[in-house]
Amino acid sequence: MRSSEFPSSVPSESPPPAEVSRKRRRRSGASSVSPPSPPGIWSRLFSGFKLLSGVTIVLGAAVLLAWGVYQYAHTTPRFALKRLEIQGATKRGEADILRLGGFKYGDNLFRLDTAKIEQRLLSDPWIKKAKVTRELPGTIQVELAERDVAALAVIGERLYLVTRTGEPFKEFEEADQSDMPLITGVSAENLARDRTQEVARIATGMEVLRHYERIPMHKVHPAQEVHLGADGIVTLTIGKKGIALHLGRGPWRKKLLMAWRVMGRMARRGRLPGIVFLDNEAHPERVVVRMR
Question: What is the helix (H) or strand (E) element at residue 21, kind and residue range?
Fold first, then answer.
């Protein structure tokens, strides 16, 4: 029998993986591309420097522009004070407002400190509230609330103007109004020690005056003086002849109406009392009259 010889090793039908990969790349036409390498540190620093430079230039230009606008607004004659509008002032005129506020025509509106002007105006005892505003290009508006004076008060050895709420706010001067009722019996020592309490006592006197002004008798016998005694005792003096109404404590309106009726009956007989006592706490309905 004839034997056949075979090679000792049989070649594999599948090509090696590396060859397959090369064949696939040749068929697809794809080429080998390596991934991009990250930028270097100098490139990153240069990019950051360019960005920072751009921001700095923009900010610098904005600052220069703002400075230019500021300088223009604070120096140009366009914004100089040319007009002063005042509301609510009866005791103080234009010249007083300029003097008290510490400013003048021609001042630059942006250089004027409105808050400081308000504080200067409030240093005047007549001015209770002040509001100062700018109105471009050349106007300052001043809104004032002044104190209203309703009586005079003798405090110690001095005379003061008093508001309707009983607040003594200014020492009396010759130019001030003087034809007003007088409040007496106020202690300077008590006012310095406890101002709230002493102002409340003055307010009681003002309350008596308000009640009296609502009674027709006040037109014939105007109020002259309210004396504030100890423990809330009040005496009201009225008329040119000084008729004393001893009111004691309240209720004020009820007692004043009683005095009006008594004096009305006496006036019809052509007589006027010197003193009317309405301070009997045990019998408040009693009225005692003392003739002159």
Answer: helix 17-28
